[in-house]
Amino acid sequence: MAVGESRIRLGILASGSGTNLEAIAQAIHDGDVPAEIAIVISDNPKAFALERAKRRGILYRVVQLSEFDDRPSFDREVLAALTSAQVDLVALAGYMKLVGAEMIEAFPNRIMNIHPALLPCFPGEQGVPDALDYGVKVSGVTVHFVDEGLDTGPIIAQEAVPVEEGDDVESLQNRIHAAEYRIYPKAIRLFAEGRLVVDGRRVRVLPGHDLD
Ligand code: GRF
C-alpha cells in the first residue's frame, strides 16, 4: 500500500510492558492515525505487550533468540514474519534488541524507534537513569528512524520533559512515558500521511493538516 493514500500496515516489535503499543493502538482506534497494526512480535514470551495485543485482537507472535542457531537466523525469522504480514512500517516499542542489517535493508527508513531521552544524549538502555545521574534539568523523548547504530538514526520528533526537584527514576520515567504516548502516535501519523522526507541526517516534515 502506498504511504499517504490509505491506512498503512504497522508491525510492532516489543519486549516489555507495551504501554507504547497500547498508546499507538488507542490512537488508531480513536481515528488519529491512519494505520492498522498488522502484527506484534516479541522476543520475550512473558512480555505484557503480547497480552495487550491479544486483548485487542491483534495478530501476535513470539520469536525467541534461544530457538535459533545464531543471531542472523533469528533476525531473518522476524523479518519473514513482518514481510508475511505485509508491513509498511516497523515501530520498535521497547524492543530490547539491536535490529540487524538485513532488516534495515529490507525496511529502509521504515523502522522507527522511541527513546526515553533527548538524543544524541543518553543513548542505550539506561536513558532515564543516565539523564538523572548526569543531573540534567531537561530530558525528554526522541522518535527516530533506525540505522545500524545504537539510537543514532535520523530524528523525526522530540519532546522535552523537565527534570523536577526530587525526581527519582520512576517519577521521571512516568513523565517521559506521558510524552512518549503523545509523540509516537504523532510520528507514525506523519509517516502514514507521507509527510516525512529523509534528507541525510535530517527528517523534513511536509506541511499538512495537524491535529494539534
Ligand atoms: C519506553 O520508555 C521506550 O522509550 C523505551 O522502552 C520503553 C518501553 O516501554 N524504548 P513500554 O514497553 O512501551 O511500556
Short note summarizing the structure:
It contains 6 helices and 9 strands. It has helices at 19-29, 48-55, 71-84, 101-106, 127-134, 169-192, and strands at residues 8-13, 35-42, 60-62, 89-92, 111-115, 138-145, 155-162, 196-199, 202-205.
Keywords:
single chain; 212 residues; alpha/beta; seven-stranded mixed sheet; two-stranded antiparallel sheet; 33% helix; globular; binds 5-O-phosphono-beta-D-ribofuranosylamine
List the helices and strands and how they pair.
Elements: E1 8-13, H1 19-29, E2 35-42, H2 48-55, E3 60-62, H3 71-84, E4 89-92, H4 101-106, E5 111-115, H5 127-134, E6 138-145, E7 155-162, H6 169-192, E8 196-199, E9 202-205
Helix pairs in contact: 1-6
The structure holds 5-O-phosphono-beta-D-ribofuranosylamine (GRF).
5-O-phosphono-beta-D-ribofuranosylamine binds at residues 14, 16-20, 93-94, 114-116, 180.
